[in-house]
Structures are given as structure tokens and as C-alpha cells.
Amino acid sequence: MIDLIIARQTINSDALDAELRSALAEKVLGISSNGANVTVHLDDTATEADLLQAESLVIAHDPAQLTPRQQRIETRRDQLDTDRDANTVPLNLDDYLLQLPLIRRLAQKIAWLEREIRDLRDL
């Protein structure tokens, strides 16, 4: 195994790993970081050109650039924040007193779920 050590403090490890694997395929065994350096772990078949390419990718790496998976998570988180902001007032069960029993029961369950979620978020 060849360990290529590059001085670099901030990385997006998922994105950098994906960039390296996209460029160097099976030669990349993984990456590690200690906050001061990034170590690219390459197999023994990596050439000098591979090492230079890996180094340039690490140096050019933009930690703010998200992977598609990270972007989906971020979008989902943003949507949940928007939904929370739009639904700050708890369900008022008095609004359902004149409804059918099934509707009242559903309102009670929704109110209970709201309380559970609020309690879990406060942990």
C-alpha cells in the first residue's frame, strides 16, 4: 500500500473519496484525515502519474461541494425546517369537538404525534 500524505485541513471526506475513486478507480483504497493532513491510501499498482493526479485532486478539492447523497440530505433537512416553521402552532383538539368520532380520534393521534416529536427534538 502507498500512503500519499498532503497538508490539508478541511475536507468533505465523502466527496473527496468519490472524486479520487472516480479518477483513479480501484487504485484508491480510501482516505483518512487528522485535521492537518489528508492521507490517500493507494494500492501498490499506483504510478507516479496516479500520485500526482491524487495530489492535485486533494489540493483542488472544494469541501463545500456536496455529493448527490449529501445534497439530498441537505434538501430534506431544509424542507423539514420550512415545514416546521409553517407548523409552529400545535393542533387544537377543541376545533374537532363537533366532528365524527373517527375524525376526533385522528386529531388526537396527530396531537399526540406532535408532542412526541417535540419531545424527541428537545433531547
Brief descriptors of the model:
123 residues; alpha+beta; three-stranded antiparallel beta sheet; 4 helices; rod-shaped
What can you tell me about this protein's structure?
The chain has 123 residues and is α+β, with helices and mostly antiparallel strands. It has helices at residues 13-24, 48-60, 68-86, 101-121, and strands at 2-7, 28-33, 37-42. It has four helices and three strands; from the N terminus they run βαββααα. Helix 1 packs antiparallel against helix 2. The longest helix has 21 residues, at 101-121. The radius of gyration is 25 Å and the shape is rod-shaped. It starts with a strand and ends with a helix.
Number of strands: 3
Radius of gyration: 25 Å
Strand order of the largest sheet: 1-3-2
Give the helix proportion (percent range): 40-55%
Mean pLDDT: 95
Which descriptor suits the 3D outline? rod-shaped
Report strand %: 5-15%
Element-by-element helix/strand order? EHEEHHH
Figure out the total of helices. 4
Topology:
Blueprint: E1 2-7, H1 13-24, E2 28-33, E3 37-42, H2 48-60, H3 68-86, H4 101-121
Antiparallel strand pairs: 1-3, 2-3
Helix pairs in contact: 1-2
Summarize the structure.
This protein has 123 residues and is an alpha+beta fold. 53% of the residues lie in helices and 15% in strands.
